[in-house]
Amino acid sequence: MKSRLGHIREAIAGTAVIAFTLLTPFLKSWHSRWGATGAEVKRPLPGDDLVPQSKGGYTHAVTIHAPASEVWPWVVQIGQGRGGYYSYELLENLTGCNIHNADDIMPGFQRLGVGDSILMHPKNPNPYKVAAIEPGRVLVLLIRVDAPAGGSFEPGHKAPRTYQNQSWVLFLEETGEGTTRLISRSRNDYAGGLANTLLYGFFGPVSLVMDRKMLMGIKQRAEKQGRGGRDKRG
Question: What is the pTM of this model?
Answer without folding.
Answer: 0.82
